[in-house]
Design a protein that fits this description.
This protein is an alpha/beta fold. Strands 3-4-2-5-6-1-7 form a 7-stranded parallel beta sheet. A 6-stranded parallel beta sheet has the order 8-13-12-9-11-10, sandwiched between helices. Helix 3 (51-62) packs across helix 4 (82-95). Among the domains are: 3-206, P-loop containing nucleotide triphosphate hydrolases (Rossmann fold); 217-363, P-loop containing nucleotide triphosphate hydrolases (Rossmann fold, 3-Layer(aba) Sandwich), CATH 3.40.50.300. It starts with 9 loop residues before the first helix and ends in an 8-residue tail after the last helix. It contains 18 helices and 13 strands. The protein is extended and about 135 Å long.
Amino acid sequence: MSFSELGLSPKVLSAIEAAGYTKPTPIQAQAIPSAVAGKDVLGIAQTGTGKTASFVLPMLTRLEQGRARARMPRSLILCPTRELAAQVAENFDRYGVNHKLNMALLIGGVSFDDQNRKLDRGADVLIATPGRLLDHFQRGKLLMTGVEILVIDEADRMLDMGFIPDIERICSLLPPARQTLFFSATMPPEIQRLVNSFLKNPTRVEVAPQATTASTITQRFKWVEGADWDKREALRQLIRSSDVKNAIIFCNRKRDVDVLYQSLVKHGFDAACLHGDLDQHTRTQTLDGFRSGNIKLLVASDVAARGLDIPDVSHIFNFDVPIHAEDYVHRIGRTGRAGKLGASMTLVVDGDMRILGEIGKIINAPLEWIGDPPPADAGTRRKRRGPPNARGESRGRPQRGGDRERGHRPERAHREPARAEATLPAPAIMPAIEAVVETQPAARSTPEHRPLRHREPRPPRESRPREERPARPASPERVHVATGEPEGRPSRRRRSGENRGAPREDGTQVVGLGDHMPDFLKRPIKQPGS
């Protein structure tokens, strides 16, 4: 079957031929005819099978007719990560070279102003991550009532990243009469619930068993006895012993990504790091350098494990066994793409045995080990707390069941004298203790030797005769400031300043502040014109 039999437009077929593709992949051959006909599609396939082109090509064919209006996109593609969204945008640029369609990319780490200008111009194709899309909608810069086609890519990854509530809210804002294309590598119960809610009589396309690895990838595992520094040394040995053209090294945590990246650079390797805490410019620049071959080793978290189409990746190294067994499939799926050969190597420590059993069920094949396989008691031993000392013992807190519980206590030199004195017989030391006690003076703080103060009882206040009480001293006589004559307590009327200057009954006059003012202050103020 060729692309010309799938119902695509001549413009799209011309772009496919210019890109060098002649034969569709199985999922493209089954999904594109239903998508071109306007039906809902549920695509289930392993990574690297061409799922992106299976919805990009029919969307270009359907969007040839019509024109987008400002802030009202005609189609919407939701992606879990910025890198995957940018990769989908590259596919539209490649296959839409003969179309005059406007495309807008809404991802985090990019200025809102540039994105708003593209939305105001009108977007036929809107590619976005859920968080940034809702930000634009809440700012009133986006209307989604004109969306005709909705694509949800890597739906199971959306579930892992906690985007399902955002997906449900976005779908509630879209018109019910739309076409929905739903793609996922696995179908957990939550994803199946979304399929039942958002899709109407979908065409189910499943080209491979869920969460299986490609047959073109050689998978091997290496048992590492020790801690993280032993794993880093084992990884360096694997890189040196393998014919590595370029490789992606996966870690579970962003902190481990930084530590491993710095360790590789310190030992002379050409490496770069990629995780979610980096700004968008740095992440884009790192991916471009890795694609172009300027960077040989890319240390990344699972943000780079889903949907990234990086051609010609020769090796995948799992520094950490993934937390979920399904992520192992997506990690190693970065190599062995489009029928090419690839290799994956995974470092395994004592705590990874449970997840390793689930991975063995997924790949449905015996595990191939580099060197010795894990010991029989792997997965049941306790992790060592510190690096070994010269005698091979762990420098950490003693574990339960160690020497302390057996009753053994290590000897110390500074405790020997104290231990010798404590073992003297009791009859030999008692006379010395009695002699010391007799020579010591009595403690003054004891109640027997504390002197008591003699105090006569004081009669109560009521029993004392009134004539024995001391008389209260009389207050000094008040004297007028100006005349020097005695003055009684002023009445309330005098204190309030009323009737000041009126004569008293004895002929005296109330004196106020104005009576002691200088003469020049008592002169009347001349009014203007008087």
